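Protocol step 4 of 6: structure prediction from sequence.
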Amino acid sequence: MADEKFDAVVVGGGNKGLVTAMYLTKYGGMKTGIFEVRHEAGGGWSTEEVAAPGFTFNTHSTAHCTFYYDLLWEDFPDFKEKGAELLHARASTGGIFIEDHSAILFYNRVNDPNWEKTAASAAKFSIRDGEALLKFGRLWDDFIYPEFQRWLWTPPTAGQPDPFFENVLRICPKGSIDPSWENKSLMQISDELFESVEVKCGLYRGGYSYWGGPAHVQGNGWHLIVITMAAAREFGLIRGGTHSSAHAAQKIVVENGGKIFTRTEVDKVIVENGRAKGIRLKDGSVVEAKVVISSLSPQSMCLDLIGEDHLPQHIMRKAKALTAFYSAGGWWDAWALHEPPNYTAAEFDPDVNETAFIALMDKDPWSLSREFWKRKLGREWPGSPLIHGFPNTWSPSISSVGDPSQAPPGKCAAGNELYTCAADVFTEKEWNEFKKPHADFVLEMWGKFAPNMTWDNVIGYRIDSPWDITYRLRHTPINGCWNLLDCVSSQVGWNRPMMELSDHRTPIKGLYGTGSGWHPLGYGLGAGGYNCYQVIAEDWGLIKPQDRNKRPY
């Protein structure tokens, strides 16, 4: 006999699980329970007061974009009011070059609707590149981005090749997109589009931040240039931190009859005659449900939650072979500051100090490739510049964002994220010993770009190592891959996590998968949860939001 009954249960309260539950409760009318092993739901949508009292920081997902939320804001008009509000700085992203303190900036759609500011920033290095960026930007707005949106928010067809690139080729003006780009590297595509090393390195750093791999890797260039452009164009920061989005989602779930159970670990999905019947908790309790959704990693879902008795061997083999190599291992640093970084590059472009996300970098196109292989070889301790070169920095409380909730008046909350060795290269004790040397290194490097970044400017700090990230979010692969799976061409879009599971269905009736390991990408965007609900709605005859709101997807 079941200890509790629901129409649907969600295993794991990460952001995709929360979004799926939002739709199940409001549009599907299903009594839904979420079971989360941590003390709170939200997964990577996490914000904590860690570096000093009054300062809040995102401890996992940091950079959010409008395309993370577009349909959620439309389908849940109160979602933004409840906390999922995206704020835009004067410039979205950019990079500062250590050689001469020049900078390349990318502006968001809100502050640069015609790409003219972004093109002008590129033109400081090359008039031709400014013109090329303006041309590509208009192609992006008119053709690529609308198809990108459709791709994000449309469930895949399992077993079918991903049509995104072919659709872009079909709708774009003839000759504007090279068909060979799908098989090229980001470095090759950038070399064809631009001539200045500054614009190219800006794109390389953006791509590296996105997936952790260098720009010369073949076959990943198209996805990288799309996501780099999309992020630069749509980037913002959630008011109050990304956990505000988690709070908003939880409120909607509960208001529509859902229940959220924290500190509750699920042991197994109950399967009878090829159909999911519910879940068994670690304490032995049984929860009955006709629909079960796992938001764990694909590996955890297949190997732990289901097991080999209920899945075909070829799926089990593919689950074991999924790669989490490139984005494995990252530091997340939180800094409580008396004043925001004052970059020397502001003399080159004043908007540098009003940019939400800044990469500190050099003009060597191959430095990221060398940095990648050095950290993969693990030959130096993680505080060494040989491992992670330059940090990426962000400041959610800078004046143009205007978010006083993340720092006291007159103060600044700022952060770094940067790659290092995989979590399993060192022990917990060793990672903890590396934190202070890492902090010293980051501040020394930061100070080369912003002279006021000294220990005198620091009120407090918190360093999270790859080990911390892995064991805070328990479904993260043991090597610390915060994106769960690499965003390589074989694991992106309709290929994610594998063609057999990409449409969220499993061979077990009534059991579905979602999360960062599913289409379209990783990260904190809501499309994975939306698409999962679309599939469930089709299987169970539930209301589809696009039908009610009269849109194509």
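Step 5 (inspection) to follow. The mean pLDDT is 91.
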